[in-house]
Design a protein that fits this description.
five-stranded parallel beta sheet; five-stranded mixed beta sheet; Rossmann fold; alpha/beta; 2 domains
Length: about 290
């Protein structure tokens, strides 16, 4: 009799550990227990897992996950467009965390691999996705982590001198040129700091612009996260842009660029980088 009672209690304990998470597709994903073997296919999700204290559960990451240092030692499984399904399956993951647009999702699901699709695009999304990742990990730290991020962004904003508030800014994420508009999480960060983004949100979060748009917008400061960007002064008409004339151009290092373009735990650091740029460009010279 005692043996059956123990079996019943064990089964109830397992059931209590079972998880059900609704991802950003609206799909309900059931996990028998908190996953111990996780593959992440998005750097921001990798950083969230690690900041929530579960880096040791990661067994594989995408090619671009490089923070924290522990992530650099993990098996690389490709990227958004070229994830290596064979390697992922060989890692025997309990769950794969990826973006909604990942091409690997359907194939992984067809092979019976559990996937949770999450897409942090705005600051509200980051708070929500942190909660979802915490739910997947079955850990309680997501609200406290978001509070630290939010407070850090506020502190960065408070450190910007009043004279610099309202400065017009153009933020380029890729030399297409693709820009961060008001509706992107980067644009929201700029607004939180107290400056004006010259790219309106109605164009979409990260629109590809006609270079003439920037000339007409004539921003006072340019921020660029792409170190391979074409020399700005060589772009037609850009020599007339105030930011270039005045030398108020920040060419962020690759490491700084990663911080700025990833919607995740390091957004307070990103806000501080923006403030430092506004106070005096980190590199400060147009190329």
């Amino acid at each position: 009799m005692k043996r059956w009672l123990w079996i019943l209690l064990w089964a109830l304990a397992l059931q209590a550990q079972a998880l059900q998470v609704t991802d950003d597709r609206g799909v309900s994903v059931e996990l028998a227990q908190p996953p111990q073997r996780i593959v992440s296919l998005l750097p921001s999700l990798t950083e969230m897992v690690c900041e929530l204290g579960a880096c040791d559960r990661l067994v594989g990451v995408d090619n671009y996950s490089n923070w924290p240092a522990a992530a650099q030692k993990l098996t690389r499984v490709g990227g958004l467009e070229d994830a290596n399904i064979e390697i992922i399956v060989s890692l025997r993951p309990d769950v794969v965390l990826l973006s909604v647009s990942s091409r690997a999702m359907a194939r992984l699901e067809s092979l019976g691999v559990k996937v949770v699709a999450l897409e942090p695009k705005t600051l509200a999304d980051v708070q929500r996705v942190l909660g979802k990742v915490g739910q997947v990990l079955h850990v309680p730290g997501a609200p406290a982590l978001w509070e630290r991020i939010d407070n850090g962004v506020n502190l960065a904003a408070q450190s910007l001198p009043a004279a610099l508030r309202g400065t017009t800014v153009y933020f380029e994420v890729n030399s297409g040129p693709y820009a961060a508009s008001e509706s992107s999480f980067i644009g929201e960060m700029l607004a939180r700091i107290g400056v004006a983004n010259v790219v309106p949100g109605k164009l979409g979060p990260f629109p590809k612009l006609n270079p003439e748009f920037v000339v007409r917008a004539d921003p006072q400061v340019i921020m660029i996260s792409d170190r391979h960007a074409q020399a700005l002064k060589d772009r037609p008409g850009w020599g007339r842009v105030r930011a270039i004339r005045d030398g108020r151009v920040c060419m962020f290092t690759p490491a700084q660029g990663d911080v700025l373009v990833r919607p995740g735990p390091r957004m307070a650091e990103a806000a501080q980088l923006m403030v430092q740029c506004l106070q005096g460009p980190l590199k400060g010279r147009a190329r």
